[in-house]
Amino acid sequence: MHVLITGAAGMIGRKLLARLVADGGVAGRTIDALSLVDVVAPEPPPGFGGRVTAWAADLSAPGEAARAVQARPDLIFHLAAVVSGEAEADFDKGYRVNLDGTRLLFEAIRALGLTERYGPKIVFTSSIAVFGAPFPEAIGDEFFTTPLTSYGTQKAIGELLLADYSRRGIFDGIGIRLPTICIRPGKPNKAASGFFSGILREPLAGQEAVLPVGEDVMHWHASPRAAVGFLVHAASLDLAPLGARRNLTMPGLAATVGEQIAALRKVAGDGAVRLIRREPDPTIAAIVAGWPRRFDPRRALGLGFRAETSFEDIIRVHIEDELGGRIGG
Amino acid sequence: MHVLITGAAGMIGRKLLARLVADGGVAGRTIDALSLVDVVAPEPPPGFGGRVTAWAADLSAPGEAARAVQARPDLIFHLAAVVSGEAEADFDKGYRVNLDGTRLLFEAIRALGLTERYGPKIVFTSSIAVFGAPFPEAIGDEFFTTPLTSYGTQKAIGELLLADYSRRGIFDGIGIRLPTICIRPGKPNKAASGFFSGILREPLAGQEAVLPVGEDVMHWHASPRAAVGFLVHAASLDLAPLGARRNLTMPGLAATVGEQIAALRKVAGDGAVRLIRREPDPTIAAIVAGWPRRFDPRRALGLGFRAETSFEDIIRVHIEDELGGRIGG
After folding, report:
1. Coil, strand or helix: which one is A84?
2. Which residues of B fall within a CB distance of 8 Å from A160?
3. Which chain A residue is nearest to residue B161, measuring alpha carbons?
4. What is the C-alpha separation between B111 and B63, in angstroms, rounded?
């Protein structure tokens, strides 16, 4: 099977690639070719015996979407996107990459299908940013999408296109609404959500971290490993039973900041917890107040999607996957 | 005030225009200029003393959206759209007109706002086609949009764009999800929904009509006059209290075909009812089975939107507005 990953150089893209190569296949079939595209050329994965084509491209640029599907991939993971903060800061870029890039990819597939038999499976990463406050206590699978960011709007539009193109038989798509990814590896960043990972990642590495909100703030989390698991599981599903409702909120863990800190204490001790510096930031607190706290993702659970069920597990995943099993700076 | 109507030559467009001219103003302000655009040039309305510019254009064609807003209308009724059946039959045309045309109009407004102070009010006609079965008994204001047609998909995307552009202060928009319009004036057509109007309109004109479904089929209706009332009321509302949730399901009347026929009997007698010929059509019955039956449009009711509350009223509106007050062929 030939697999295309867009956004293959991103954090989730690289982890997905590593998982696919380690598994050797996906959806019960061997992977013999990989196409990897991102705005910077993705690294070909070590240890993969099949054919790899990796190149740098913006799918919203003329001809690039057609080039991405030229080799008729059987399975497409469409992860490429401008992130939330950037899509809010740069209106044109967000709509161009997140909306036009997605639509052009879908159109490139449709163009092939007009003259030959071609209809790949597509796994599209959406986000809980398609939802906007006010929320019920737990957000159900039939709750409406009223995003409060341009990024969320672009993802919600991508979901609608995915469902319509799937309904019309152009491809076989599934949209995966990812929880906030925690613990996000890498350097601290200025994203409003950065502290959810930072208050764990930095102390686990012996570094100080800033907590800008109160301990009662609750949010919806899953590890990078769980996120990759969702994508791989989605690729293996028979999507016909989804009917026209192709977009699913993924399972996650609803946890307060206080619960995150308690889990850190259990796994890494009081010393780690003492590295968290409280520095209230009303701006960040106000942004986070509009975010989802908890979902009731029955459809996804019924289809076998699974996330972590404790924050200790989320922390242990980070220690295993990012720190070589060892805590401390 | 300067008012632009896109789709001004359509059924609702013409009735809206007549109402605005009869009222002389809208939202408490006098109308001194009208811009009217449609794919065929709209007729300038008789009896209007202000400036009228009417022209034929497809808003999705290059430059046409910019031309439509060149005169900086204060209020825009964006009604232009390819209808459901055509958008399903012609994929490219539906997406071009309903999605690209709408986005280009919104972008033309944004382009003006980048260099000057410009941010009109926009009333956008959406549709209950943004919803797709299965449904709860009554569809609430927070139910998700999973359209089963490309038309419904395009309208749902228009709603998302409208909300995001409004949130960002580019314009001040409201989306109005119209019920099925009944009694639709004019000739019988091949739309799957045509019989809902046909079984009343044709007998009221002394003509035979075909009923392809059972009397227990329930659907969600409002008269053309009520639809125009929604648009005019929307134009007069302060939209700030809507926050980011700019799209509203309009009130309507949930009625079975049997209730429609009973109302026809009350208003026009047994002779009219005998003109309805039962000719079951399983294809039409299957399509209609996927349509909404009833809504619980609390937000719109709370904002003062009103539809008919009996089918006799819907029939009387037709007799007054289309038949000069007289029944019979």
Report:
1. helix
2. 145, 147, 153, 156-157, 160
3. A153
4. 12
Q: Is A328 within the bounds of a domain?
A: no
User: Is this model's pTM higher than 0.90 or not?
Assistant: yes
Contact A97, A85 (CB under 8 A): no
Residues B183 and B126: beta-carbon distance below 8 Å: no
From B156's Cα to the closest Cα of chain A, the distance in A is 8
- Supply the CATH number for residue B129's domain: 3.40.50.720
Residue B175 maps to a domain: yes
A19 lies in which domain range?
Answer: 2-179+223-249
**A188 part of a folded domain:** no
Q: Does B132 touch chain A (CB under 8 A)?
A: yes
Catalytic residue, candidates A95, A118, A151, A165: A151
* Token digits of residue B319: 């007799």
Active site residue A165: no
The reply to whether A167 touches chain B by the CB within 8 Å rule is: yes
Looking at the fold, whether A29 and A144 belong to one and the same domain comes out as: yes
- Position B6 in a domain: yes
B65 and B111 in contact (C-beta within 8 Å)?
no
Q: Do A150 and B142 count as a contact with CB atoms less than 8 A apart?
A: no
Measured between alpha carbons, how far is B223 from A5 in angstroms, rounded to an integer? 50
Is B238 within 8 Å of chain A by CB?
no
A200 contacts: CB under 8 Å, gap ≥ 6: A182, A183, A209, A260, A264, A314, A315, A318
Is B148–A91 a contact, with Cβ atoms under 8 angstroms apart? no
Q: Are residues A275 and A127 in the same domain?
A: no
Q: A243 and A271 share a domain?
A: no
| pLDDT, one tens digit for every residue, chain A (329 residues) | 999 999 999 999 999 999 999 999 999 999 999 999 999 999 999 999 999 999 999 999 999 999 999 999 999 999 999 999 999 999 999 999 999 999 999 999 999 999 999 999 999 999 999 999 999 999 999 999 999 999 999 999 999 999 999 999 999 999 999 999 999 999 887 788 999 999 999 999 999 999 999 999 999 999 999 999 999 999 999 999 999 999 999 999 999 999 999 999 999 999 999 999 999 999 999 989 889 999 999 999 999 999 999 999 999 999 999 999 998 75
Place of tokens 């008994």: B137
Q: How many domains does chain A have?
A: 2
What CATH code is carried by the domain that includes residue A308? 3.90.25.10
The b/e string for B17-39 (b: 16+ C-beta within 10 A; e otherwise) is bbebbeeeebbeeebebbbbbbe
Residue B134, judged by CB atoms within 10 A of its CB (0-12, 13-18, 19+), counts as: exposed
